[in-house]
Design brief:
This protein is mainly alpha-helical. Helix content is 72%, strand content 0%. It contains four helices and no strands. The longest helix is centred in the last third of the chain and has 16 residues. The protein is elongated and about 50 Å long. The N and C termini lie far apart (36 Å).
């Protein structure tokens, strides 16, 4: 839920509460995004802004830095 909340907070996704989740809810979200090109483009652009292209490398560097701090 934390990752999904982050995307919703940054207007890059939609989310339904688990207790309200149903096939109808999912279909409603899909239809909304498929039928509204402006909403789809906005969410896509916002998701791109959040994407960390070098996340793997940054994690490796963080792990390496922590190892050197312990030595």
């Amino acid at each position: 839920k934390t990752n999904a909340s982050y995307l919703v907070e940054h207007d890059a996704a939609m989310m339904a509460e688990e207790d309200k989740l149903s096939p109808e809810t999912v279909l409603s979200f899909i239809r909304r995004v498929m039928n509204d090109s402006h909403e789809r483009e906005r969410m896509c652009n916002n998701a791109r802004k959040l994407f960390k292209y070098d996340a793997g490398e940054r994690l490796v560097q963080l792990g390496t830095a922590r190892k050197s701090c312990r030595a």
